[in-house]
Every structure is written in C-alpha cells, then in structure tokens.
C-alpha cells in the first residue's frame, strides 16, 4: 500500500440560499496516494469544482459552508486548521490551477510581481532569490525568454502561456498536491495536450499528486490512475481508471461513456446524449438522484437512496442493481 | 505618454473656444442690463446710457464678441463691472479659498468613504455593511444646505465650539484658521464621501468575485494583501472616475456651502456675478471652471494608465 496524501471522508458542502439549501457536495469520500492522479468527472453542477474548492476551504462565505467531513492532508485535517496553518499550505503544499487561465491571474500586476509575492509569502528569502526561483520556474514550464516575460502583464500572454504561468506559480513551493480544476477546458485542443504533458512532466519530476477535475473522459484516461464519477453532489462510481473503462457499472457512467463522440462514428448519426438535465440540488431526498434520467429506473430508485458499495476490490458503485450479488445488463445504444 | 498629454492639452483649445462662445451668448441672453442693474431702478435713462457706453455695451453683439475674443487671446478677461477689478485678479483671489476648502473636503471624503466601501464589500451582508450603506444613502440624499444649517445649529449655536461663518486667517493663529474650515469642509465632504463609499463597495463586490481573487487566495496570499493590494487596484477605475467628477464639482465652487458659511470662494463669486449681470466676471469664471473640468479629466485619464496596464491611448497594444 502506498502512502496516503489526501484522505477525504464524508465531505458535505452546502450553500444556503434564500430559495433553499443546495447540497452541492453531499457525502463524498476518496483517497489520493502520493504521486498518483485522480480524476473527478461529472456534468456541470455535479459538485466536482465545489469538492476541489472544499479541500482548501475556498468556499465563498457566508453562503457556502462545509458542514461535515474530514480532509486529511498528510494526516492533518485541513478543515480543523487555523487560518495561519491553512494559508501556509495553500500555494505551498497544495496548489490550484483553475479552468480559465485568462482570468486566473491578476490583470493589473506583472506576472513576475505576482510570482514573487507568492514565493515571499511562503519563504523567508530575499527578493533577488525569489526572482531567481520564479524565473527558474518559468523556464521549467517551457516559457522561453523567461527573463523578459517575467515583466509582462497577463494580457500579454496567450491562454496556453497563462496556464503555464499558473503551473509555474505552483512549482515555487514545496508542492505535494496540484488540484487542477478543468485546467484545459478553456484552451485549444493542441494547447490542451501540451499543458497536460507539462503537468505529467511536473508530476514525474516532483512526485506530486494531482487531483484532476474534468468533464473530459479522454483526459481521465490519459492522465489518471483512479477516477470518481460524481452526480448531483454524490459519488456514483469510484474505481481505477482501467477498471472503469473495462467494466463500468453505474448507468450514469455508461451514459457518459456512450456520449463520447468517436471519430469513426457516422457523422450523419445524431450524437448520443443522456436525456434530461441534472436535478435541482435543493430537491434531493431519499431517492437515487439519477432516477429522473435513468433508463433502468425501477420503483425502489424513487423511494430509497442507494449506498456506495464496494462491488470489487477498489471499485465502488452506488446503484440498487449493481451489487456483489446482482448485476444489471447494459443495453446497447 | 508625453505625447498623449500634449495631444490632450491641444484639445483644450477648441473646447475652451466653444465654451467661451456659448457662455458669451448665454450671458447676453439673460434678461436685464448690467448698467441698469448697477445704477438701480431709479437711475435716469441718460446715466444708464452713458454707463453702457463706458462698458462697451452699446456696440453690436458681433463687435462685442470679437473684442471679447481678441482680449481673451491676449490673456485679458476684462474688468468686473461691480468690483471694478480685473477678472483675472478677482479669480486668483477667490480660487485659492475654494481650492483649500475642496482639498480638505476631498481628503476627508477619501479617507472616510473608500475604507468604508472596502470594509462593507469584504463584510458583505454584515451589520457594518448595512449600517454604513444606510448612512451613505442618507449622505447622498441629504440636502446640503440643511446639513450645513444643522451643523451650525449644533456646533456653533448650541455647543459654541466652532465659528459659524467666514474664513479664518493664519495671522490669528492656527486654530482660527482650522476652526473656520471644519464645518464647511464636513458639510462639503458628505456627498463625496457617501458617493465614494457606495462606488467603492459595488466595484469591490464585482472584483472579489473574480477568478484571480480566488486564485490568489488559493496561493496562500494573506487576505489583507488580496483585498487592499490586488482587489482594490482592480476596483479603482470606477472609483477614480467618481473622484474626478466630484473633484471637478468641488473645485468649481460649492455654491450652497459657500453661501451658508459665508466662505469667500468661487461659487459665491459666480452667483453674485450672475445676479449683477457682471458679464465679464461670469465669462471668466465659467472659462476657469471649464478649464478645471478638462484638466481633472486629463488627470483621471492619466491615472487610468497607471492602474490598468491594458489601457493604451496611443492606439497600440491591447491583447497580443
């Protein structure tokens, strides 16, 4: 067994709106080992990003609140840390990379100034040394003429370059975990591949773990060791990537896999989708959240919430009809 | 940069020309005659006629306009009818008083309004936010003459702490100078302070929702730096705009405040000039105000360059 880096237990993050309580993350558990990559997939609004933000407690207060759970990072519960401890791991041990690189750097400061500020926040060194570290990091992520680019403003970079800068900013600390929240969604396909390569490269060099939030199953296949499928704030399936592709069990996972367009597909055929849309998260109750859209729905799905059970070693699924005893026959689409 | 400033200064010429023409036409359209006003209703007709001739008012409008323009180009803004003094010297005498009052008020408004706006935004929906925004709402909607009178009533009449009218002099000691400044500048600072607080709050609220703020927090940057360094600088453009507007209107003389507190500033000078049909003084004063507005705008535009690196008036740059 490898060393656990991150151990999330029964995490619940709710948003208290005037129209009701949105259970954005409702009892999610997973573990991430050192040097491993885990993917979280799901549709928009399934709670992937909120899960990621909850890990470093970046939930907008007072509306959002982490109401339950433990987030053990190297054995210490982040949710119980003091503000000072929390700030000291943010950006140093755990680094986040966001979806839209166009908006995730402060537009009015030079990137060099921003990098130096991050470095000096975590290390007691001189400005000169900080500058050297920053330039090294920029070179490491493949930014040529790093010395010049150091004095550029964010708007002078392309999207892919800005994402590289974001990654470079992660590298300046004592990096153990990268939380990448859809890091390539806003980028061109060719740039996407380069950014993913860079992340892999960083991981190899520093033995970092990566938590990859995405809705792109191709990225999961390419990057991840394990994967968690989320739906309406809950885990519906959690397994090793190879296992999930070989033997997917949850009807929602089937839907996701079937929805992936294939290049070999007849272009006259309509694309396959999962009918319907994700449920209103204020209206969750004692039923399977997927029952509105599930082609295999039965009465029990509407009256009882399925539990997440380990059907095979390391393969968890939350469906009334996928247990150790029963299996569901997957229909052809 | 220098080129930009030079270009903007050149733009001043047509603007001031236009303003001077418009103000010339408007003053001539005010009913009433300067000579008749000066001499009073009982004055004999030929005395009025004689005065009109002395003032050059018997000439045709076109002729008067040409003389006026010629004088302006020479830097001569004429003589005030009522004071008999040159307009330039009158304006130079009064403007420093307005400048002093404006600077003190502006300073008060900035150090009160902006921090309140920032704290309200960071403590959104808190008691502080509600209370300060209600006060700010009262501040922007309160009639300034009423506030001025209330201040006089409380601090001069009842408590007798501060003088109610006039401007102090340094020759009578520092306290005389400061004590005369307090009430008018507080009255004058109210609306700008409330405006700054409201604009700062709403601009900050927009900025703190931005991704880069979350991104900065995710890097472990201290909240103080996130708000006061990063968020504030991003929130500045609308704030600088209203600071510019408020500064211009403060500098052009606060008529009500100056009247209530008998402050010898530009505002009262202009009102008196209009009442007495003092054409030359009206023209000179309005030109000065127009110049102030254009000048403050130029400063605001230059400030934008410093706070937003994406702005480039040379037409180059932008996203690469």
UniProtKB/TrEMBL annotation, chain A:
Molecular function terms from GO: ATP binding; ATP hydrolysis activity
Annotated organism of origin: Tissierella creatinophila DSM 6911
Subcellular location: Cell membrane
Name the UniProt record assigns to this protein: Oligopeptide transport ATP-binding protein OppD
GO biological processes: peptide transport
NCBIfam families on file: oligo_HPY (TIGR01727)
Stored SUPFAM superfamilies: P-loop containing nucleoside triphosphate hydrolases
UniProt-listed PROSITE patterns: ABC_TRANSPORTER_1 (PS00211), ABC_TRANSPORTER_2 (PS50893)
UniProtKB/TrEMBL annotation, chain B:
GO cellular component: plasma membrane
Keyword terms of this UniProt record: Cell membrane, Ion transport, Membrane, Nickel, Nickel transport, Transmembrane, Transmembrane helix, Transport
Gene name linked to the record: gsiC_1
Sequence similarity: Belongs to the binding-protein-dependent transport system permease family. OppBC subfamily.
NCBIfam families, A to Z: Opp2B
GO MF annotation: an example: nickel cation transmembrane transporter activity
Name of the molecule in the record: Nickel import system permease protein NikB
Record note on quaternary structure: The complex is composed of two ATP-binding proteins (NikD and NikE), two transmembrane proteins (NikB and NikC) and a solute-binding protein (NikA).
Protein localization: Cell membrane
Boundaries of every ABC transmembrane type-1 domain copy: 95-304
Source domain of life: Bacteria
CDD domains recorded: TM_PBP2
InterPro entries named among the record's database cross-references: BPD_transp_1_N, MetI-like, MetI-like_sf, Opp2B
Membrane topology (UniProt): Multi-pass membrane protein
């Amino acid at each position: 067994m490898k060393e656990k880096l991150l151990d999330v237990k029964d995490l619940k993050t709710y948003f208290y709106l005037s129209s009701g309580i949105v259970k954005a993350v409702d009892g999610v558990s997973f573990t991430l080992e050192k040097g491993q990559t885990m993917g979280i997939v799901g549709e928009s609004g399934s709670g992937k990003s909120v899960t990621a933000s909850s890990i470093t407690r970046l939930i907008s207060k007072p509306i959002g609140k982490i109401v339950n759970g433990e987030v053990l990072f190297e054995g210490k519960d982040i949710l119980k840390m003091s503000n000072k401890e929390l700030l000291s791991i943010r950006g140093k041990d755990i680094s986040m990379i966001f979806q839209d690189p166009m908006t995730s750097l402060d537009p009015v400061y030079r990137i060099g100034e921003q990098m130096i500020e991050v470095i000096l926040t975590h290390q007691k060194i001189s400005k000169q040394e900080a500058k050297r570290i920053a330039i090294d990091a920029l070179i490491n992520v493949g930014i040529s003429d790093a010395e010049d680019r150091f004095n550029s403003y964010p708007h002078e970079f392309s999207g892919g370059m800005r994402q590289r800068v974001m990654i470079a900013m992660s590298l300046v600390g004592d990096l153990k975990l990268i939380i990448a929240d859809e890091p390539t969604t806003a980028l061109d396909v060719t740039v996407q591949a380069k950014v993913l390569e860079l992340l892999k490269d960083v991981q190899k060099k520093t033995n970092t773990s990566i938590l990859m939030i995405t809705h792109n199953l191709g990225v999961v296949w390419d990057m991840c060791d394990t994967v968690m499928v989320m739906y309406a704030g809950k885990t519906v399936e959690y397994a090793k990537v190879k296992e999930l592709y070989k033997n997917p069990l949850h009807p929602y996972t089937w839907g996701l896999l079937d929805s992936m367009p294939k290049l070999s597909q007849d272009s006259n055929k309509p694309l396959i989708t999962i009918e319907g849309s994700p449920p209103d998260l204020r209206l969750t109750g004692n039923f399977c959240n997927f029952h509105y859209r599930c082609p295999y729905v039965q009465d029990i799905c509407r009256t009882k919430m399925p539990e997440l059970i380990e059907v095979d070693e390391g393969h968890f699924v939350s469906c009334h009809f996928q247990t150790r005893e029963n299996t569901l026959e997957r229909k052809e689409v | 940069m220098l080129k930009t400033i030079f270009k903007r200064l050149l733009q001043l010429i047509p603007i001031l020309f236009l303003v001077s023409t418009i103000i010339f036409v408007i003053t001539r359209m005010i009913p009433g005659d300067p000579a008749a006003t000066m001499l009073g209703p009982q004055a004999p007709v030929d005395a009025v006629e004689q005065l009109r001739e002395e003032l050059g008012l018997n000439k045709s409008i076109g002729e008067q306009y040409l003389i006026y323009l010629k004088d302006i180009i020479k830097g001569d803004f004429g003589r005030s009818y009522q004071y008999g003094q040159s307009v330039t010297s009158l304006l130079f005498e009064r403007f420093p008083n307005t400048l002093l009052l404006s600077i003190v008020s502006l300073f008060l408004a900035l150090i009160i309004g902006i921090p309140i706006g920032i704290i309200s935004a960071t403590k959104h929906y808190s008691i502080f936010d509600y209370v300060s925004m209600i006060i700010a709402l009262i501040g922007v909607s309160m009639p300034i003459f009423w506030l001025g009178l209330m201040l006089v009533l409380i601090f001069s009449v009842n408590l007798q702490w501060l003088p109610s009218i006039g401007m102090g002099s340094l020759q009578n000691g520092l306290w005389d100078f400061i004590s005369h400044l307090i009430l008018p500048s507080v009255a004058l600072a109210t609306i700008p302070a409330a405006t700054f607080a409201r604009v700062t709050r709403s601009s900050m609220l927009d900025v703190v929702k931005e991704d880069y703020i979350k991104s900065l927090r995710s890097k472990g940057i201290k909240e103080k730096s996130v708000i006061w360094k990063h968020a504030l600088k991003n929130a500045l453009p609308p704030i600088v705009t209203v600071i510019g507007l408020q500064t211009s209107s403060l500098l052009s003389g606060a008529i009500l405040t100056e009247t209530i507190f008998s402050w010898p500033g530009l505002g009262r000078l202009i009102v008196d000039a209009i009442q007495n049909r003092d054409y030359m003084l009206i023209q000179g004063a309005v030109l000065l105000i127009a110049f102030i507005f254009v000048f403050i705008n130029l400063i605001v535009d230059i400030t934008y360059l410093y706070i937003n690196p994406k702005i480039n008036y040379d037409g180059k740059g932008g996203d690469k």
